[in-house]
Design brief:
Strand content: 15-25%
Strand order of the largest sheet: 12-11-7-10-9-8-13
CATH topology of the largest domain: Dihydrodipicolinate Reductase, domain 2
Structural class: alpha/beta
Radius of gyration: 20 Å
Oligomer: single chain
CATH architecture of the largest domain: 2-Layer Sandwich
Number of strands: 13
Largest sheet: 7 strands, mixed
Number of helices: 12
Order of helices and strands: EHEHEEHEHEHEHHEHEEEEHHHEH
Number of domains: 2
Amino acid sequence: MRIGVAGTGRIGSFHAETLRGQPEIESIVVADVDAARARQLAEKLGVEAVDTVDELFTSGIDALVITAATSAHAGLIRQGIDAGVAVFCEKPVSQDVPSTRDVLARGAETGTPVQIGFQRRFDRGYGRVREAVRSGELGWIHTMRAMTADASPPPAAYVPLSGGLYRDCSVHDFDIVRWVTGAEVESVYALGSNQGEKFFGDAGDVDTAVAALKLDNGILVTVSATRYNGAGHDVRLEVCGSAGGLVVGLDDRAPLFSAEPSVSWQQAETPYQTFLERFHDAYLAELRAFVDVVAGRRPSPCTVDDALQAFYIAEACQLSQDTGRPVRLAEVKA
């Protein structure tokens, strides 16, 4: 099996190194718009490099892993589909709904498998909660609280290209709510604010947001996000049911510090600082699953349609924030 990797930044380098350790993969070839960066990674890992991303498609690859800039995702997925090679792409599929729909239609025509990178689906904690919710172990679910809190903001240059806090950050929470519950979001109400760096407002974005979601089975969900969580990188999901509750992300590195003087549990000495630390094992499992997809042993565990449904929720939240009113998902799906 020969895998091409388009994009050799932080996550691309991590994925290339992960793939190198898979026994079924005979060779890896990397490419980047910065050819020197691709050659540097190739030398470090002992893999091949080509000068342009387009050359990946003439290098005999069986599959393509896309970790390039968001603006390149849709075009590269289409190229992979047209070349008949299985595709893994970091979220999002595209920067807008029409282009995402176009990619979905293109894939449906050919049957070429495409897996989108929502790594939380491969985290053991989220898997355990999904099992508990789907089995009825927690009774009927009335409330869920999801959060993604970055320890520090991204570079200023990244923000205008990110798509905004809902599409770039909270979209992971939107996807996992659907995956855990099997339900769809019916309506949203979202608020955002800026108290940090001016570049967020200059880009039309916010650095902190909260959204209330109502699912079509009656579950109420709050989703919060911030770029400024000084305690550390904090990603959690709390699920509350009539017969019990569970929390994802409550481990010995969770950046939680109690104000209670009599607290007995160990508080984090080395809290998570980055998403790669928090989801290291999930990223490994995600790429192992993609190898199975390429080999034809399983269908895509996270499809373009899954990504589109999460994107709709992000779009609805952005519209709600912009208009100051609740938004039904039907409005953005029309």
